[in-house]
Design goal:
alpha+beta, Aminopeptidase, Nonspecific Lipid-transfer Protein, Chain A, 3 domains, 9-stranded mixed sheet, 19 strands
Length: about 350
């Protein structure tokens, strides 16, 4: 049976979590099950009353080019070792995508342990996480971070810092920072405020019970350098009409408004499948479905995974050049999703 656990039942999945993620410390597990379980949803498959497979849907308020949407960060994807290769996870993934589409969720995202597990469901990388290091500057000094008195101001600063550089990110508020503080504490983490003489320039944190590592560095380009980056977050568009409300024509488009016809192939969310009329302006767009069927040769056809890569600004499919005004359709510029759970 596939269902969502009631709040009082969520502790039942702790044994599966520990089996699937033995690298997680007891302290981190305690944090997760006390804090993240407060507002998430846990989709499980049960066999003979035992939880054999699960997916955790952790909600985040996501900023999308001036708009806000609640999108789920998928974590805890696991199946009992003794019950693997029976199709249980596939059944959960399909049920989850169906539910998200009914909820009109624009997209969902995750940090994959293995990319190959999620590509079959049309998840694709959309965010490469930079590894920033603080440049040497004799004028920089650190102060302890006191969220009790500065929480609201720091959340406002982080959101403004993100808006200057990115068009998709998790919205910061005081509750977000307070939860982050607990997450850091579970791995003996610290957060410090950075100052250039008396001028506030950013925030830095590190964590790790065994090996210390940077959790984040939020500061201006003048104070940081990039020591590399790696693919970190995969995503999937779930409700196409909801997602494209944030996509618009570029300012240099010779037309203020255009309508193009495209075909979308989506094997797992049938509501996305078919021929669509895409009405675009320089302020947004909307989609109207013409048919569930795509007439061969009549229009350019993209898979939902190709649309995900393109519209998040990660990779442009070759078909875009053949779409009328395709070069003027403006994908997101800048994605920043550095959440862990």
């Amino acid at each position: 049976m596939i269902r969502y656990l009631e709040t009082e039942e969520k502790g039942r999945c702790l044994d599966l979590w520990r089996e699937a993620f033995p690298e997680d410390s007891t302290e981190f597990c305690d944090y997760y099950f006390k804090e993240k379980m407060k507002d998430n949803r846990v989709l499980v498959r049960e066999e003979n009353g035992e939880i054999v497979s699960m997916i955790h849907r952790n909600p985040y308020r996501i900023y999308m080019r001036g708009n806000e949407a609640v999108c789920d960060y998928i974590v805890g994807v696991s199946t009992l070792v003794s019950e693997r290769h029976k199709g249980y996870m596939r059944s959960l993934m399909l049920a989850m995508l169906r539910d998200m589409q009914e909820e009109r969720m624009p997209f969902t995202f995750l940090m994959p342990a293995r990319e190959s597990l999620y590509r079959p469901y049309d998840f694709r990388y959309i965010y490469d996480q930079p590894r920033w290091v603080l440049k040497y500057n004799p004028h920089i000094h650190r102060e302890p971070c006191d969220l009790k008195t500065l929480g609201a101001d720091l959340a406002e600063w982080q959101t403004a810092w993100l808006k200057r550089q990115y068009e998709v990110f998790a919205i910061r508020d005081e509750a977000y920072l307070q939860r982050m503080e607990k997450e850091l504490a579970s791995e003996n983490g610290t957060c410090t405020l950075l100052y250039d003489d008396d001028w506030f320039i950013g925030m830095q944190s590190e964590w790790g019970l065994k090996e210390r590592e940077m959790r984040y560095l939020y500061t201006g380009e003048h104070y940081r350098s990039e020591a590399g980056q790696k693919p970190a977050i995969m995503a999937r568009i779930v409700c196409m009409p909801e997602f494209v409300t944030n996509i618009h024509l570029s300012e240099d488009c010779p037309q203020d408004e255009v309508t193009v016809e495209i075909g979308i192939n989506d094997l797992f969310v049938p509501q996305n499948q078919g021929a669509w009329l895409w009405h675009l302006t320089k302020y947004g767009s909307r989609m109207t479905q013409e048919s569930r069927f795509i007439a061969k040769g009549k229009m350019e056809v993209l898979t939902i995974s190709e649309l995900t890569e393109w519209l998040f600004g990660y990779r442009t499919p070759a078909q875009v050049k053949k779409i009328p005004y395709g070069e003027f359709i403006e994908p997101f510029h800048g994605v920043f999703l550095d959440e862990v759970v």
